[in-house]
Amino acid sequence: MQLDFFPSRRLTIYLAKLFVVRIFAVLVMLVLVLMALDLLSTSGTILATPGNGQGELLTYAGLRVPQLVARFLPYSVLLATLITLVTLNQNSEVIAMKAAGLSAHQVLAPLLLTALVTSGLSFAFNEVVVTRSTATLKAWEANEYGAIPTDSGVRANAYFTDGTNILSAATVSGRGEAISMTGVTWYARDSAGRIVDQLRAPSATYAGPGWRLLDPVRFNVETTKADRMDEIVVGDALTLEQVELGRIDPDTQSFWQLRDDIDRYDRVGRRTAELEAKWWHKLSGPLAAFLMPLLGAIAAFGLARSGQLFVRAVIGMALGFAYFVVDNAALAMGSFGGYPPFLAAWAPFFLFALIGETVLIRTEE
Q1: Which residues pair with 95 in a beta bridge?
Q2: Which of 139, 184, 185, 333 could cysteine-pair with 338, CB 3.0–4.6 Å?
Q3: Mapping DSSP to helix (H, G, I), strand (E, B) and coil, where does residue 64 land?
Q4: d(Cα 330, Cα 259) in Å, to the nearest integer?
Q5: Which residues have a Cβ under 8 Å from the Cβ of 12 and sit 6 or more positions away?
Q6: Which string of b and e fits 39-68 if b means at least 16 CB within 10 Å?
Q7: pLDDT single digits (tens) 156-195
Q8: What whole-number distance in Å separates Cα of residue 77 and Cα of residue 79?
Q9: CA nearest 246: which of 341, 334, 168?
């Protein structure tokens, strides 16, 4: 029995079913509570837009829920691990399994396998659902909860430079010469960086070269006068390639799309450290669920009657939450070049895998 990593088939299925039910229950509870709190803070803003009603609130919830699921699934696995292992310990099931000859690793094996499958499903869910809902939600928020953009390639809050001048847009959609912008602002600046003119337009299209602002309002800083114009072309030196590469949001792109854009950045000599860290984190992030049974394993062992079961559960929870803190800190360090991108994404995972394995071996094996 000691040479087999998994216990018997019946016991493996039993433990996996317990774990799956608790993961689902905790995840539903967290998402419902957090979604209710989110709606309390944003419903007023959504309903303030003319024409919005209950349908738009449901739309917002539909776009926000996938983000909450992706973000809090590892937390759900951690809490489900503690609930499952504490229950098994209190009912003396862990003692029975160890008396039957199972090692601590064999007791945890079904949970680790279930967590690994959960990580795979989380990665697929992020790629297929979360990236699209995030892109749509960000574009909707940038449009002040007006008409929802239907273009899946919409980017929100984009900024471009043309020498000392700046062009900003609430949304950018389309590709090639079909690129269009909404909520456009053009800042004309002198050589000292001071704003001379400001033009605001509801939309802009590619003029080849330059960008045609439709129905702009021009504000002259020196005279403090505003004039309405039919159209004007600005940013002659701002190319289509610069706009397409102007702002990449890793949260709205799939694993393979982000890799392609990183390669395009490399070819034009742009900095890619932040994007590469986010790219690696698209793999290491979902795998956080796989770590949770190992970090929470300390709650499974030790006698329940010793009075230390609660302390063990707290230690397991502390290890799990410490991982998320270190992971976020390392990703932030990688974003501005403090860590290499690969190290920023994977160092917390391997570090806490070693910590969890060390605690398990020293206390139980």
Answers
A1: none
A2: 333
A3: helix
A4: 21
A5: 6, 109, 110, 113
A6: eeebbeebeeeeebeeebeebbbebbbbbb
A7: 667 777 777 888 887 777 776 777 788 888 888 877 777 8
A8: 6
A9: 168
